[in-house]
Amino acid sequence: AGWFRRLLHKPKPSSVESKLNTSCSTSSSSAAKSSSSSSSTSLARSVPLSPLSVLDINASDSARWNKSYDICICHSEVDLELVEELVSYLEGQPESFRCFLQLRDAAPGSAVVTELCDAVQNSHCWVMLITPGFLQDPWCKYQMHQALAEAPLANGRTIPVLKDVDRKDYPKELRNLYYIYMALKENSFRQIRDTVMRYLQELCRSSTSRME
């Protein structure tokens, strides 16, 4: 009889828990519908950054300083305004990312091919802003091929970012790499920053391990 009375008086879930469960269920269902209906979903996802701090990456003996730039931005001239916003965002982060922007940083009088190759070789990561202009620009494709030849299997070094381009038009040379689809600019900028940060963290960690 005692256990029967306890069963009858078993407390019901609180209204807060009930609402929370309902909310989570609704949110999950909405997200699934959104994912299935979107024709241009980003294939990149945010991954939590590892504990290695900004101080470690900025240390004077960090492997980060083995190259002149952290990021080389490959883009079409018609997308310059957007790229300048991205560079301003990245350079304004606590890590003070060093970005190569061709129209700003290329040496006057130097050959275009030389500058593009040097930028690729002297940068840790390469952001490919793939837009209709990029797909029509032979210099963008040249720089993309140089980056792939430099490090074809280096995870996180080549970062494709799609904007106003259908997935079917995604360059076949990059099909083995996940991309970021730029829908909300702020979110995409943050994804780019996080991807570069993860690569630099792994770079510094690997360098420290070899030294030990």
From TrEMBL:
Gene Ontology biological process terms in this record: positive regulation of canonical NF-kappaB signal transduction; positive regulation of chemokine (C-X-C motif) ligand 2 production; positive regulation of tumor necrosis factor production; toll-like receptor 4 signaling pathway
InterPro entries for this protein: TIR_dom, Tol-interleuk_rcpt_adapt_Tirap, Toll_tir_struct_dom_sf
TIR domain span: 67-203
Region (Disordered) location: 12-44
Biased composition (Low complexity): 18-44
GO CC annotation terms, alphabetical: cytoplasm; plasma membrane
Single Gene Ontology MF annotation: Toll-like receptor 4 binding
Superkingdom of the source species: Eukaryota
Pfam families the UniProt entry points to: TIR_2
Record's protein name: TIRAP protein
Source organism of this protein record: Bucco capensis (collared puffbird)
